[in-house]
Amino acid sequence: LQKALQKKNYKHVTQLILLQNDFDSIQVSKAFQNLFQKTLISELSCLPGDTWANLVKQWFKQENVANIDVEKGIQMLQEAFQQNQINYDVIIRIITNCSHQSFNQMIQSDELDEIMKKLEQLNAKNKKALKLAIDCLKCQESGVVNVIRDAIIGIGTDNDMLINTSVLFYKEREQIKALYPKLESDIKGDTTGKYRETLVYLWGFNKK
């Protein structure tokens, strides 16, 4: 996180924050303050005032505890997307306050499928941040899959995030592999040499 903040790599900051669960946020905050003698929340407060930055700041507070009425939540999201100017404040408020249980109930709704399609009309930065937050609300491993796919697919490889996720979520690797059946072939097709060997080892693909 400190490296990403220093380099102003806000994409990495967004990913590293959204991938944290409640326990992670507490531990990361303590470690950050001990290492750098400053609070992480104060560093995040300096992020630009864009939509994705507001999402990151609110998410870091880890207040995903509200068991909101599912129908009301869906209605609020529909209204937020129906306006000529998308109401990001409402969208972020629901995503950062809704409990995982409530959100997973909302996911079962056909109406939410239509809302998710409307994410495509957002600019790339906001769309990626919101999609990642939604995946993380489903489950942390789903968010990790989102970040790994983003690191691998397309032109070039985001080596920093591929390494970060491989190391940070080593203990959850079996759940992640179950959600990402093509992970082995994607890693082998996108990396070479000792780097590939290390990733293959970390993910346990060498134990067949």
Automatic annotation (TrEMBL):
The keyword Coiled coil applies. GO terms for molecular function: calcium ion binding; calcium-dependent phospholipid binding. InterPro entries: Annexin_sf (IPR037104). It comes from the Eukaryota. Keywords: Coiled coil. The keyword Nucleotide-binding does not apply. Residues 105-132 form a coiled coil. This is Annexin 1. It comes from Trepomonas sp. PC1.
